[in-house]
Amino acid sequence: MSTALIVHGGAWDIPDDEVAAHRNGCRRALDAGWAVLAACGGALDAVEAAVRVMEDDPAFDAGVGSVLNEDGIVECDAAIMDGTTLRSGSVAGVQRVRNPITLARHVLASDVVLLVGPGAERFADAAGVARCAHADLIVEREVVRWRELRELISHQPRNAFERPPTEVAGQRGIVFGGHPGDTVGAVALDAAGRLAAATSTGGIGNKPAGRVGDSPLIGAGLYADNETGGCSTTGWGESIIKVLLAKTATDLIGAGHTPAEAARRAIELLERRVGGLGGCILLDAQGRVGLAFNTPRMAYAYRVAGGEVVEGM
Q1: Euclidean distance between the first and final Cα of the chain, in Å?
Q2: 142 with 65: CB under 8 angstroms?
Q3: Under 8 Å between Cβ of 257 and 292
Q4: Cα gap 307→309, rounded to integer Å
Q5: What is the reported pLDDT for 149?
Q6: How is residue 197 annotated by DSSP?
Q7: Is-above-0.90 flag for pTM?
Q8: Is residue 274 within 8 Å of residue 242, measured between CB atoms?
Q9: Alpha helix (H) ranges present in the chain?
């Protein structure tokens, strides 16, 4: 059985001066996940390892370096799914957790699927997941962006996040495309033929406190099924949720499309039906790769057994 791993570092208008950091971060994440697969480790371990690297990298909107919500603090969402059993674990709106993907992995091993806010944080303490100070997750770049966003949308209605980014600030991308939406994610196929997917994010800058996007929602932010494929998505969560982008993409594989064609069709649907912006990465049970995005850039890297590392933006 072939092994394969693909990671993404977010789909948005990544500035030229941040391209190298995103590319290098994706490569480090790929290397970490690949080391697990090369040692005959499982797909779940591989995607967790890859995503942890990106959560620890301040270049990305996940863990350290996440965007700030309207209160000026970091709230993270994450999820992980096992394609063999269809078991999953998700957390949303968690604070002071450096690696939300590891917390999600603990939830996967529990009797529940999704934990939110203080309940998820209490679960983290009971499970021995390391906590940190709010300040440990905040970088100066995001403080500056937070101030800019607050000024830009200070006169927008409270329900602005329910409307397309073009309407939020009067031009395409001023809130979403021009500022981070770089959720991170990974999909792996291990030597035993098991698929797994993982996604982690800090969300959208200056989001309402408690806002949850697509990332922790099974079928929207990720999906994995050994009988079809594995997917992790990134982008404007309110639109991704409406079309269940990850499940849609993997179902297209199940309908006979290649991962490349499934990814393209899924993103076309996202844009046509709800005007959504985003991207997705895919693997099927044979280790074939697919990816697509309709934002200016999406950071990604992948590797298939016997092949070289492929990086892109």
Answers
A1: 29
A2: yes
A3: no
A4: 7
A5: 83
A6: E
A7: yes
A8: yes
A9: 19-38, 43-55, 100-108, 117-127, 140-152, 165-169, 237-242, 245-254, 259-274
Query: What DSSP state is assigned to residue 194?
Result: -
CA 205 – CA 56 distance, rounded (Å): 19
Pair 77, 215: CB distance under 8 Å: yes
Q: Which residues of the chain have pLDDT under 70?
A: 1, 155-182
pLDDT of 171: 33
User: Who's near 26: CB < 8 A, 6+ residues apart?
Assistant: 7, 8, 9, 54, 299, 300, 301, 311
**Beta-carbon neighbour count of residue 106 at 10 Å?**
19
96: left (phi over 0), alpha (psi -120 to 50) or beta: left
How far apart are alpha carbons 251 and 236 in whole angstroms? 21
Greatest alpha-carbon span in the chain? 56
Size of the chain, expressed as the number of residues it contains: 313
d(CA 165, CA 179): 11
What are the tens digits of pLDDT across the range 148-207? 888 877 766 555 544 444 443 333 333 443 444 669 999 999 999 999 999 999 999 889
* Angle ∠(140,144,148) on CA atoms, nearest 5: 165
- Exactly one of 183, 233, 234, 250 is catalytic; name it: 183
Residue 11: in which H helix or E strand, if any? strand 4-12
Assess contact for 173 and 204: CB atoms under 8 A: no
Does residue 250 carry a catalytic annotation?
A: no
**What one-letter code names the amino acid at 38?**
A
Q: What angle do CA 136, 313, 141 make, to 5 degrees?
A: 25
DSSP secondary structure string, 190-257? -TTS-EEEEEEE--STTPPTT---STTSBTTTEEE-TTSEEEEEEE-HHHHHHTTHHHHHHHHHHTT-
